[in-house]
Amino acid sequence: MALPAGIHALPQTVEQGEQSTAVHPAAVETGDGVLLVDTGFPGQSGQLESALADAGFDWEAVTGVILTHQDGDHAGSLATVVEKTDATVYAHERCVPYVDGRKDQIKSPDCERYPPAEVAVELVDGVTFRTVAGPMEVLFTPGHTPGHISLYFPAESFLLAGDALTATDGRLRGPSERYSLEMDEALDSAQALADRDIDQVLCYHGGLVADGDDHIARLLDGLR
């Protein structure tokens, strides 16, 4: 399976006790540089830099960061990335106060939060970016968190799902019931994705899933 031209997975692996957790930030090429989609756990900018290099880029190529949402495994290294790149940060308007530190983190409030960072541009549903892979549309997919977004590439029938969908052993799954704050809303968001023409999905937790037995519409039709 190959990602569409101009889109790159930037996998990270983090040791948590006796377990390893793999996550999948991404890089999207534009005419003005590279947009990172999420930054991974706190302290993982080194892995991000190595993955960027494997894709043929360095920090100087990064002009922006889009957060799918504010959780620490997605925004944990944001402040470090901004320090290294001076990138413009984009996030949904409902995420911004959690990212910039005005509000305490929603999940694990007793844990030390990641360093806050300023968000320059507040996103809303339907905003579109021009990329090498064609238009990239912001889809508001709340439920996992209040301001969760996914990113859709209609010309490539491709979705960067964030945590709106997950995958296990190469098979597409619905949103995580354990980690979604409002599961009914998360399921509504997932079901709305079935109306899109999607042949490939990069899930932040689980990686790349292609069309076949796990086609997104067939999966989502059975979620309710």
UniProtKB/TrEMBL annotation:
InterPro entries to which the protein is assigned, alphabetical: Metallo-B-lactamas, NDM-1-like, RibonucZ/Hydroxyglut_hydro
Residue intervals of the Metallo-beta-lactamase domain: 22-205
Pfam families listed in its UniProt record: Lactamase_B
Domain of life of the native organism: Archaea
PANTHER family assigned to the protein according to its UniProt record, in alphabetical order: METALLO-BETA-LACTAMASE DOMAIN-CONTAINING, METALLO-BETA-LACTAMASE SUPERFAMILY PROTEIN
Entry protein name: Glyoxylase, beta-lactamase superfamily II
Taxonomic placement: Archaea, Methanobacteriati, Methanobacteriota, Stenosarchaea group, Halobacteria
